[in-house]
Model the fold of this input.
Amino acid sequence: MKSFFSANSLTRLLIITLLALTTASCGFHLRGNYMLPEGIAKLSLTSFDPYGKLTRMVKYQFKLHGIEEVKPAATVPNLNITSESTGDSTLSLYQNNGKAEYDLTLTVNYTVTIPNQGIEQFSTKVTRTFLDNPLSALAKSVERDELIDVMREQAAQQIMRKLARLTTVFNKIEEDKLNAELNQILQKQKVSIKDGSTTTITTTPAVIHKKQDHNAQ
Done:
């Protein structure tokens, strides 16, 4: 029996099979309100401010969603909070040109590292409107700090939602790597194999010879 496959077809079939196995091996587990990948059941957390409010809120989200925080290691996925910043954009002014109303924005930058897959950078933003009053500056300062804490909590929740989509992100990275390898293989084949040529794979059925019974001779 003879089967005819082009070299390109065989290579593509191999890559597709690898992609299917990679995707099928990724599992999910319901943790809290999100479907988080099983690969991050244990996660290390590092931060530019290890004892800051944002870091503590992210740790609380870990507990809430059943993620075990472990020490950083080469074989353990890592969430690294790299920075936190606030900014504002004026919406309206008082007659004396003082800020009356503005949008307050909290920006959190972080990275996620998955062993043997790579590192991805992310940024999350939370924006809220704040009404200022120069006549009660102290009270408004306290109110602003409280609002920023609420925004930090929302940013921590957004980070968890991003973790829930990690498998899709890293599957895309793996797919891009495999596609790049496929293109390299096909480029090499163009040099050594003419277009339209085929590779013939011949399979020969095994022949089994029965030993004659000496008593029957």
